[in-house]
Amino acid sequence: MGIRSDLEANFDFDIVDEFLDHYSLMVESMEIMILDLAKTSMYERSVNELFRVFHNIKSASSYLKIESMSKLAAFVEDELETLRSKKGPAQEETINWLLEISDMFATWNNEIKVDTKLSKVKISLLSTPDI
Fold first, then answer.
1. What is the number of H-type helices and E-type strands within the chain?
2. Of the candidates 56, 110, 127, 129, which lies 20 to 30 Å from 79 by C-alpha distance?
């Protein structure tokens, strides 16, 4: 039994389906917002939108008891809070780290779609750039 089957066995189908729809949209939008952090004119908007995305993922995955996703989203949310207090653009190291984070969430999105177990968080993602 994979993650999707587990969610559907423990939660109302409509809640799971709505989470999966919104999660897919958020994951698909991450990369462009991350890349926009390199642009001074887009920095503030992008960092605030990314913060909102990770906050929403954290809240929803916590409710659905997807612990690894919830914890990583909370970790990223904390780092984005720091970035929100700074002026842009973001440094390349920060952007690359966030792209790797985005890849992890995209991997989970694919694993949910094919109903397998979620991959473990890559330990390298827990080493943040000098934000």
1. 5, 0
2. 110
The answer to whether 43 and 90 are in contact (CB under 8 A) is yes
Q: Which amino acid is at 30?
A: M
Tokens representing 37 are: 């952090």
> For residues 78 and 117, what is the distance between their CA atoms, to the nearest angstrom?
26
Element (H, E) at 8: helix 3-10
- Which token pair is 130? 């000098």
Instruction: Please tell me the predicted confidence (pLDDT) of residue 129.
Output: 84
Above 80 in pLDDT, residue 55?
Answer: yes
CB atoms near residue 5 (< 10 Å): 11
What CA–CA distance (Å, rounded) separates 95 from 93? 5
Region label for 89, one of left (φ > 0), alpha (ψ between -120 and 50) or beta (otherwise): beta
Which pLDDT band holds residue 128 (cuts at 50, 70, 90)?
Answer: confident
Q: Where do runs of H (alpha helix) occur along 11-66?
A: 13-36, 43-63
